[in-house]
Amino acid sequence: MFRISHFMHELAQAEATGAYPAPKRRGGEGGALRPHTGPVVIWNLIRRCNLTCKHCYAFSADHDYPGELSTQQVFDVMDDLHAFKVPALILSGGEPLLRPDIFEVAERAKQLKFYVGLSTNGTLIDEPLARRIHDHGFDYVGISLDGIGATHDKFRRLEGAFDRSLAAVRHLQKLGTKVGLRFTMTELNAFDLPKLLQLMKDEGVDKFYFSHLNYAGRGNIHRGKDARHLATRQALDLLYETAWADAQAGGNHEYVTGNNDADGVYLLQWVEQRLPRWADDVRQRLTAWGGNSSGVNIANIDNVGDVHPDTMWWHYSLGNVKARPFSDIWHDTSDPLMAGLKARPRPVTGRCGACQYFAICGGNTRVRAQQVTGDAWAEDPGCYLTDEEIGVESSDERVETTAFSSKRRVIELVPTDS
Ligand code: SF4
Fold it and tell me: Whose CA is nearest to atom 1 of ligand 1?
């Protein structure tokens, strides 16, 4: 995840005081979390969903899936995560609110002092359910909106989904629960981004999460509709200017992006153009951030207990929490994917390996490389920066995002010696 507003607030402070602020100590949002060493865990507790969205990485549908963790198994895993000093659990699905014990799970998580987020499509949240969510002390609720009105309904494949999700935002906002809008951009909904940012403002929403398309599940099937590089740059320009205006005005709204760590490099370019005197400071801070952290600071447990480096790797299991503790699986670098993801630098080749900003971006999203080329360490085809910008010789041999083919599923994960 790339926290645009974090950098914009530092820049606003630098402009106001004439000095770039010192780095904050690690301790989580608001510094309220207990000291941690484990990753943030996104936990898909259930795969069932009342929707069948076009870009769903879980291929979810409205039926039960066998082998999901029982309440007791969830509690046992949670104890292990607590001992492993995992700071935050993001409860997700499918639609997590379809899990009958979701509030028991949330209550237990809060007792153990995790930061607890809920990732939901929002369509089921009426006033009473919003009240239950609020009363259980969720720290944050992310609600997906992929456009305005019919655009969203088309993505979500449910007429009226937009109105229901927006109503959920309002119910939760009224109660004082922190809400974020989650938007996944493709070429079919990019035009609605300005309107969604305006909606965020009008509704007084705290956070905007902009997700680039990643190539997993139905998102991989539809990858031919990924936003083209120019549209991506325009979207980032708009997000940066919006976050900068907010920071300058003393606002505390959060603008974050996910699934494309080249956003950090693009921010550096923005700073070089708009606020060049802080470019060196920002470069240092971005290098300390280091880009993609799948398999390091981000982890995923799916509905049946398989552990993955992040939510986009459901086709690759590192082990199952029913058989081994998460903490054990997470440290195990005998797995070639984990070995590569945990290596510094990662064994990334091609255009990303040669990029002058590799230390900032970390080589970006390995799933896209693997899904398109079969090689998890090849260049990320989702990079929207030009050869000139990243300091490599121009070539016509860029990996292009090709339309999905069910025949292509080569798993090549052994790191190279380079
Ligand atoms: S070329 Fe690769 S490493 Fe460089 S910015 Fe793009 S995605 Fe990141």
Answer: 352
Can you tell me the distance from the alpha carbon of 215 to that of 222, in angstroms, rounded to the nearest whole number? 8
pLDDT digits (tens, 9 = 90+) for 220-259: 655 555 557 888 999 999 999 999 999 999 999 999 999 9
What are 170-221's pLDDT values in tens digits? 999 999 999 999 999 988 899 999 999 999 999 999 999 999 976 656 656 5
Domains and CATH numbers, the chain: 2-343 (3.20.20.70)
CA distance 311 to 365: 12
Q: 262: Cβ below 6 Å to ligand 1?
A: yes
Residue among 59, 24, 76, 6 at smallest CA distance from 312: 59
- Amino acid (one-letter) located at 268: L
- Per-residue model confidence as pLDDT tens digits over 300-357: 999 999 999 999 999 999 999 999 999 999 999 999 999 999 999 999 999 999 999 9
Q: Is the CB of 363 under 6 A from ligand 1?
A: yes
CB 174 within 8 A of CB 126: no
Which region, left, alpha or beta, applies to residue 116 given φ > 0 means left and ψ of -120 to 50 means alpha?
Answer: beta
Torsional sign, CA 278, 279, 282, 284? negative
The pTM score is 0.89
Looking from the CA of residue 384, the nearest atom of ligand 1 is: 6
